[in-house]
Specification:
disordered N terminus, 59% helix, 9 strands, alpha+beta, two-stranded antiparallel sheet
Length: 552
């Protein structure tokens, strides 16, 4: 067998250049990348789903998803394994769907693809129009269908009809006329006496209702297949409102509450934020400094490294970026149930808005989780995970790896500092956003140009000021545990971040949250002076931490 040769250095440089351009939004560059790697993607899909037509569909889905998310590719040298992972995941999802219901084979056999049958906004293929279009096309060939195909067709009809109970009698009448009898909206309007505009409106509303029911049906089916059989679990967690008010970073608050559930009750929020790196982070939107900035970074690697230093691994579903498919909602609900049943709560994005909350109980009869966040307690239906106002799914379960009461500073400090250096000087982030010291430079530029959003600035300042207060407390705790050069370097870093925290506090006075304030020329100039001082302090603080790391 001939061995496949790797790319030459020239080919690698070309691919890196194309990937950089694609990350910046160049569709033509992405098209060239597809041309280079489509056959490889097809081979991966074919090995998993076997059928060449299904493999081609898998590749199309994967390429659409890759194009939508290529701005999240942190390392341009990793494009090929990144794309291969997307193809493999899409293929496994397709194979699992086929094993569960046998529908993929039937839909492929039923005929051509109708116009408009592309992945919808959630990334799902096989929307209601496309599925029913195929079904009605198959009706004229029932006499030639083999028994297996005919059985699948009837089962699918039954399943779709079962989802129509969420419709009113009028909605169901119009829905069946359009999708089963294949009448056009204008024909339905003429027969029913409605205007064509009202027919379109009713059909759109009906499709949304049936899609909701489809997701509920899938999630219930997924839960029935799960090996977790506890019908109701409520962990003995009663988060105090002070837990949430004591920290502006909701992810760090969730980390601390999960560690408390694992028996590490002695670790405070400042220590949690320090070892996880959240106390030293800064992320902003470049042009306007809007409220999205603090949460716009690659969660997976940051959370994974932070939890690892705290003695935990992690499992997660979703990326928080797009509306989830029914499959993703089902997998997220299953992950949350398994973790809660084992005694560990999970954290989830978007339960109370654009922040993280804790899931710490579930009830199969009610098909809902018990969640606690900054806004209090809420029951969240299984099928609503990732489908709130923010419309993004991310569910994370922490897995304990160490029995230590708290991290070992001698072992973890060099790893933490390496992470902080990467964040300060070169962390990759989303297009249009800046991280670390570069975020402060972007903020200064926005203030000088008069483009900084008053409310966004107030919120980002609040988050940054809170983080730096915890950074000072964290470093103070380290200083008290060391002597000699380590203690001196840590004390130096603590002093720099103390100065920075003071400047953030003065900025918070200029931009009070949640009121916000449009700055006049004098206020904007003062804000720029404070940000410049903050940059000098934090750069010196990072340098002090770098010197500290050399002492290990």
């Amino acid at each position: 067998m001939e061995r496949e040769l790797g790319p030459t250095e020239e080919e690698r440089r070309r691919q890196v250049g194309l990937t950089e351009r694609a990350r910046a939004g160049d569709a033509e560059a992405f098209g060239e990348l597809v041309g280079l790697h489509r056959q490889r993607a097809f081979r991966i899909a074919r090995k998993i789903v076997h059928d060449p037509y299904a493999a081609e569909d898998v590749v199309q889905d994967a390429l659409c998803r890759a194009f939508l998310h290529i701005d999240r590719l942190a390392d341009v040298d990793r494009f090929v394994p990144w794309l291969s992972r997307i193809v493999r995941n899409q293929a496994l999802m397709a194979r699992r769907s086929e094993q569960r219901a046998g529908r993929i084979r039937f839909l492929a056999d039923a005929g051509g693809r109708p116009p408009g049958d592309e992945p919808d906004a959630s990334g799902e293929r096989g929307d209601l129009d496309g599925m029913l279009y195929r079904l009605t096309r198959s009706q004229g060939r029932e006499g030639t269908a083999d028994p297996e195909r005919e059985l699948i067709r009837r089962e699918f009809y039954t399943a779709v009809h079962g989802m129509l109970h969420s419709l009113s009698s009028r909605e169901r009448e119009l829905f069946e006329a359009h999708f089963f009898s294949q009448l056009t909206p204008s024909e339905i309007a003429a027969l029913s006496g409605m205007t064509e505009a009202n027919v379109y409106k009713t059909l759109s509303r009906s499709k949304a209702k049936v899609k909701e029911e489809r997701i509920r049906h899938y999630v219930r089916e997924r839960m029935d297949d799960d090996d977790v059989r506890h019908a109701r679990v409520a962990l003995p967690i009663r988060p105090d409102p002070k837990d949430w008010s004591s920290g502006a970073d909701s992810a760090a608050v969730c980390f601390r509450l999960m560690m408390q559930a694992a028996g590490q009750a002695g670790i405070g929020l400042s220590e949690t934020m320090g070892w996880s790196g959240h106390a030293f982070r800064l992320s902003v939107e470049r042009r306007r400094i809007d409220v999205s900035g603090p949460s716009m970074y690659y969660w997976e690697p940051v959370f994974e490294r932070g939890l690892d230093r705290l003695g935990f691994g992690m499992r997660h579903v979703g990326d928080g970026g797009i509306p989830p498919t029914a499959y993703m909602v089902g997998e997220a609900a299953a992950l949350a149930r398994r973790s809660i049943a084992s005694g560990m709560p999970v954290m989830a994005w978007g339960i109370f808005g654009p922040e993280f909350a804790l899931l710490h109980g579930y009830d199969d009869e009610r098909q809902s989780f018990v969640s606690t966040g900054r806004s209090g307690l809420r029951h969240v239906p299984y099928d609503r995970l990732g489908r709130g106002a923010d419309d993004g799914l991310f569910v994370l379960a922490a897995v304990r790896r160490s029995r230590a009461v708290r991290p070992d500073p001698d072992r973890e400090t060099p790893r933490l500092v390496a992470d902080l250096l990467g964040h300060a000087y070169g962390e990759r982030t989303f297009v249009g956003y800046a991280a670390g010291l570069g975020a402060i430079d972007a903020w200064i530029e926005a203030m000088r140009g008069g483009e900084a959003d008053p409310l966004g600035s107030a919120y980002c300042i609040r988050v940054a000021a809170d983080a730096r207060e915890h950074a000072v407390r964290f470093l103070r705790g380290l200083t008290s545990g060391w002597e000699g050069e380590r203690a001196r370097r840590t004390f130096e870093a603590e002093g720099r971040y103390y100065e920075s925290a003071g400047c953030w506090a003065r900025l918070a006075g200029l931009f009070p949250f949640p009121e916000g304030r449009s700055p006049d020329r004098e206020t904007a100039a003062e804000a720029v002076r404070l940000l410049e001082t903050i940059r000098d302090c934090e750069e010196a603080g990072v340098e002090a931490l770098e010197k500290l790391a050399r002492q290990f």
